[in-house]
Amino acid sequence: MEEEHQNPPQVGRRRGRPKLLSDAELRDQVLAAAMSAFIEQGFARTTTTDIARRARVSKRDLYRLFADKTELFAAAIGSRRHLILDLPRSGGERHAPLEALRLIFRLDLSDRDADERDAMLNLVARESLLIPELNAILYDTRVIQSRELLMDWLHGQIAEGALPDHDVGRLAGMLMDVVFGALLPRRKRKGAVDRTAQAQDIMARLEIVLAGLNSISRKDSR
């Protein structure tokens, strides 16, 4: 008679309950998934089903946190706008204008964060052209207010005497054109971006703008 073999009982291997996430954690998870989907597929082709699947959440939870796909788009961009412009700055900070602009325009980002920043800039630029209503929503909800924040910072620099008095609206627009024009070239890049060389190029451009601003100020004071 064959001897019966039984597997020994396993002790201490209980199947635990899945971790319950807070609403804040669920929100971050959904926003990360939404950003990934929007970058890969664009706004029109992305569905809330896609986002829920990527985030591994139920559509019920998704709609509990966000009213619709448009709100999700605005929230996803807003959650990562610090990658585009680091404003407002913390109080008591003291940097020369050129170094402050390096930090404001996030030329200190890691390669991974810089790649995400570039993808987000391309996303906003592309979708704003395809669906103008999205651009209006981003401004109406104050998700995109980069120029206004930069103008506020320039006003502060002028008040402190760190920069000469100038039309801050035009100056803010010029600074953003200089930086984002370099980050979003008209021709598609081939291969990986040399972030060190890119930052050095943008810093050189900013230095020229500041030098020109100081030169105009000296002429005006004569």
From TrEMBL:
PANTHER family tied to this protein: HTH-TYPE TRANSCRIPTIONAL REGULATOR RUTR (PTHR30055), MYCOFACTOCIN BIOSYNTHESIS TRANSCRIPTIONAL REGULATOR MFTR-RELATED (PTHR30055:SF238)
* InterPro entries from the UniProt entry: Homeodomain-like_sf, HTH-type_TetR-like_transc_reg, HTH_TetR, Tet_transcr_reg_TetR-rel_C_sf
As annotated, the DNA-binding region falls at 47-66
Source domain of life: Bacteria
Q: Known Pfam families for this protein? A: TetR_N (PF00440)
Q: Which UniProt keywords apply?
A: DNA-binding, Transcription, Transcription regulation
Q: What's the protein called, per UniProt? A: TetR/AcrR family transcriptional regulator
> Which residue numbers delimit the HTH tetR-type domain?
24-84
Query: What are the leading ranks of the lineage?
Result: Bacteria, Pseudomonadati, Pseudomonadota, Alphaproteobacteria, Hyphomicrobiales
